[in-house]
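Hello,

Following up on my earlier ticket. Below are the four sequence lines again, exactly as submitted.
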Amino acid sequence: MPASRSATSLGPGLPARQQSLRDHNLALALRVVSDAGGPVSRAQIAGATGLTRATASTLVELLLAGGLLTETALLTAPGSGRPAVGLALAPGGFGGLGLEVNVDYLAVTVVDLTGEVVLREVLDGDQRGRSPDVVLKAAARLAASALATAHGRGLRVAGTAVSVPGLVRDGRHVRAPNLGWYAVDVLAALRRNPSVAALDLSIDNEANDAARSEVTAELRSFLFVSGEIGVGAGIVLDGVLFRGTRGWAGELGHVSVDPAGPRCRCGAQGCLEVVAGLEAVTRAAGLTPTQGLPHGVALTAAAEAGDGATLAALEAAARALATAIGGALHLLDVGTVVLGGAYARLAPWLVPTLSRCLQERLLWSSWEGPIVRPAAQGAEAASLGGARSVVARLLSEPERWLVT
Amino acid sequence: MPASRSATSLGPGLPARQQSLRDHNLALALRVVSDAGGPVSRAQIAGATGLTRATASTLVELLLAGGLLTETALLTAPGSGRPAVGLALAPGGFGGLGLEVNVDYLAVTVVDLTGEVVLREVLDGDQRGRSPDVVLKAAARLAASALATAHGRGLRVAGTAVSVPGLVRDGRHVRAPNLGWYAVDVLAALRRNPSVAALDLSIDNEANDAARSEVTAELRSFLFVSGEIGVGAGIVLDGVLFRGTRGWAGELGHVSVDPAGPRCRCGAQGCLEVVAGLEAVTRAAGLTPTQGLPHGVALTAAAEAGDGATLAALEAAARALATAIGGALHLLDVGTVVLGGAYARLAPWLVPTLSRCLQERLLWSSWEGPIVRPAAQGAEAASLGGARSVVARLLSEPERWLVT
DNA sequence: AGCATAAGTTCAATGGGTCAACAAATGCCG
DNA sequence: CGGCATTTGTTGACCCATTGAACTTATGCT
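Thanks for your patience. The regenerated structure is below:
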């Protein structure tokens, strides 16, 4: 379960010193361990990185002392020779925390260095009626309690990633129309809780973090399409999220799929969101949005019951999705689409049509057809992805955590 | 005129050695010189990079010895103190060559380290009737002659970038339907010419190289939209071309703008290319494509004459462009659109409508409106962009050219 | 002429990776 | 059961790039 393979290189624009060599090679060695399925030896690290065994040993020694690696049982060599000492990411040392503030729940996830979930808590409840202050106070309490539990188990939390369902400006102000938030400084509000204030906080869009949660060693580049009332996308390229010049990339919901379609709140006509968003599909299916329940539930039930209007609405949504996603794939040249959010639950009815339409559209489908699959992570994926992004940062900049 | 600011960092996945420090810092120092408007002193390099004056001096010495830099006149300091020795990119030493094979011409451009054109030659003529072998033989001769001239002026050509109007697979095989080429190994054919064989050849799509030619110090991220018979785009992010996972990114021509539109040769309906490509616009304007002449010429003439049908056709094309480009901007979050190819000539009629429609569509237009402008480089931009990309590579990896 | 100031150079010190030799730990084979 | 091949991991001398501080050089200002 390696997290993101962020660039373990010296920052462009910064001078390279001796210490930079160390930093780079530490991250390199660590990545060999995190990318390998099982335990790895010092000699294997040397082989995989191109460093000498001497250097690999030195680096490993530092990572062991810093609590990022642990020695495991001996590895039985295939032939003869001295058996190797196994090395693995330390499961009990450092961890990452993800805090998700969403429309109808709050969630917190803590993962260890291997990306495994060690703690998860969800607080259901519609947040729309409550003021940002009240919501964020509850979220901070949730994070603080998770933090205390993690500390109790000996886990050091290296950072906290906050996920919100909206646009983030300047890394601070959140505009989340679905929550009725227009310029809420989420991090400042969270920091009012003293035990959260001590944390290294960062914030990102919920779809972005959900996309991050789908990164695996095998699948490193894909388009993550999250469908709820709004439609958003996370673009993941070689394990790192593509953010665009201002951090607003991935607004798939406002790609046009029908120039003569219904008007969208953004001002344009026929945006994907107003054609294939949950609200539109629910209405097209002839269902009334169940009060308090997420739209996806009613839709899924109707589809499972084989309701004709619902199946037709889903078919139409899949076609619209194919139009928008096809355009995105032509622009971005990624080979895989991951359906998240409510689309994941609706995948059985969306994937066949979507897959077929994409196959028909894509220029290069005769060489390499697109792969469409539902998200592997279920609900609350954003808090997992956020937590993993903390760990990914730790793994790519280990020197920051190796206090001498 | 700095060329692309490619990452001057140690390759990810590669071990960092002492030599890597040197390489990184050499590129860093060189970039300070290339990014600065005028001559720079050693002390300024030290200040800008964070290196010590001692190190900056050492690096500059190497770059001088390698012929990448030259000393210029003394710089008058603002206060008193010892005057600094000016340093600038050596204009006469190294250069890059771009060779463009296009539908109705062949072009070659040679630039020096500063990105200035020192030599350009264009061979007009429709290449569609001729076999790839004949075309590429002529192209190789053109390159060889330019190379000889450049050598005669003392310029060492560091590499050659070939631009073709089609998809490139595996860095070798070119599929260019407009030329009637389906799997032509362009580089192998060019190498049959002995004086070209010695060059370090690379190959890319013509639109990509044209996009590269628009990169300046001020404009480092944009969507370059090239309209001819086909429509393609080059996505430039912080000075480097975004290529996607397989190198096919930027196929804007096959983004759908009208699900009920005419069928495209790719199989889908309503692709931008069949709605706003030159052929479609020409037909919509009621013009017959002038035999042998590029479509854009007839259109431009009719538009200048104020022909009503033509103006209406261009207006419709601009709307279609807005639909497709709007989607791309929402996905990629870049702020500027550069119109290239025939669209550059048609810009006076396209930009107003396109700009207004984008303003209406874009989610964030109230914060930051999109900028739309025609390409600064005219025809044969691809050969310029290719030549510049060679120089950009040289500047980002200077150690490869500093023979000890 | 003398002084302040800034540019550029010199050189010992620091620190990180390499290289080669060596020690340690196992399987294999006689 | 003992020697041998084989592979792992460690040690120390060496190399090399950057640092930092002292020093030299070249100019303007008073």
